[in-house]
Amino acid sequence: MRSILSQKVGFNSNFVLLNNGRNMAFPSHNSDSAFPQPQSPNTLNSPTSPASATFADESDLFVQDEPHVGELHLVPCALDVYLDLPNKAEDRYELVEGILFHRPNMANTQHAIIKEFLVTKFRAVKLTGNNRVNIYPEMKVKVSSGKSRSPSVRVPDVVVGPYTSSESTGNASPRSQKIIFHEDNIPLMVIEITSPSNRLTDMNAKSEEYCRTGIATYVIIDRETDRVIVRKLIRNTRSRLDYDSEVVYTGDTLVDCFLFRERNLTAEKIFRPQQTAEEAAQSPTRREERAKERERRAKEEAQATAVSERRAKEAAQAKAKAAQARVDELERQLEEFKGGSTAKGGTHTNSVGKRG
């Protein structure tokens, strides 16, 4: 079966995706467009624009309202085309050095639950003045691609950025709203929640990209090991491949990082958000019962400790008494020995005297 050679990827027919041996996405001819317009191999020597080119076989051209989920995976794509992907598709793709990479839908999974939990917790933090921040779930971040000149746009699960009022955001152009974070507006912190399909990318490739971009803090919520990994860029220097420090948090240890610290978040709370929510939603009666139970257990433990200490004291006293009795016995035996020796010495003297 002939592969799809052309696919509509925009809201209208202004954007055409060619797939003829190699894939290429580009805006169709428009006198108002300032972008370069790469052409497919079929139209390199043609004086006509790609949009008006006549195909020998009309079956080579297919136009649909929207691409299917995952259909554009590994398709080369320009930054402007990527930013104009349909709403349903744009949240499912990242642009890596000019190539589209499909992002699996994480709705109704532990991944989504953790993300919602963090966003809700962070937005509840009361910050003032210069400490105010904005919390974004899945916001596009243009990152440094190193030596590659092709653009890269990542979509972290949670982005913490400098505070921006809704009014100023609303006055921004539609294009600038689609990619708020770029070289001139770097996020303060990004958070990735790992899944089996993206764990290695989150741990390695994205870490290098975020570090090279100058993002000061990168937090990895590693679901495979139930660890929270905090990487920090202490020397804020770009073009580096690794963060200056890495601290790993597990269990009930407080995650010592901005916003996590303010909400007293631990790895246990992050990886068990449903359990935490259920405990928080318990009725006052249930909480009172649990408090009484803890008090009863504490009292029993205190009593057991007191009994143990009393028994230890009695055992020590008995041991000391036995030791003293042994000492007394030894002293008595010593006195008897001394008395016997004295008596023998006196008899010997008398006998000598008589002989004299």
From TrEMBL:
* CDD domains the record matches: DUF820-like
User: Which terms under GO biological process does the entry name?
Assistant: DNA repair
Q: Where do the coiled-coil regions begin and end? A: none
Q: Which residues form the Putative restriction endonuclease domain?
A: 82-236
Provide ranges: composition bias, Basic and acidic residues: 285-316, 326-338
Region (Disordered): which ranges?
28-52, 274-356
Renumbered to this chain, the Polar residues biased-composition regions fall at: 347-356
Q: Which protein is depicted?
A: Putative restriction endonuclease domain-containing protein
Q: Which organism is it from?
A: Chondrus crispus
Instruction: Provide the taxonomic classification.
Output: Eukaryota, Rhodophyta, Florideophyceae, Rhodymeniophycidae, Gigartinales
